[in-house]
Write a structure and sequence with these properties.
Layout: H1 3-10, H2 16-24, H3 62-85, H4 90-122
């Protein structure tokens, strides 16, 4: 039997839904107690509670792309609803749209980055599985 197949058979699955929920809350996907972050958006090297290592994560651009996707849909939906129900001029609608986009974007940055790191942990990607890439 192939060595890679034998190693895959010995790996226990990780709880994906629980890990993703913990990641959205910026908690360690392993224990749910420690924080993934050491600063506002800087991922910690390891969990302060269980010692799970996070230094090899690769949450570079995906959180930003997810943020743009979600915020774009929220802003466009809100803008269309406001245009249809209120008689706002172009400038008030523009300011409202930009304000909503900024607020929602800032509120989603940390949860989305936590989600991406937790997904990498749950699926054993980028070194979270114990072996090198």
């Amino acid at each position: 039997m192939n060595v890679a197949v034998e190693q895959m058979e010995q790996v226990t699955p990780r709880p994906v839904k629980m890990a993703l929920a913990r990641g959205v809350r910026s908690k360690c996907p392993n224990c749910g107690k420690g924080s993934i972050f050491e600063k506002k958006l800087a991922v910690a090297n390891e969990c302060s509670e269980c010692g799970e290592e996070f230094f090899h994560h690769r949450a570079d651009d995906l959180p930003a792309y997810l943020n743009i996707f979600v915020v774009g849909h929220v802003v466009i939906g809100t803008m269309m609803a406001v245009m249809g129900s209120l008689a706002l001029g172009l400038w008030p609608l523009t300011f409202l749209t930009v304000a909503i986009a900024l607020v929602v974007s800032f509120l989603l940055m940390r949860p989305l980055k936590g989600l991406v790191v937790a997904a990498q942990w749950a699926f054993r990607m980028h070194g979270f599985g114990g072996q090198d890439d």
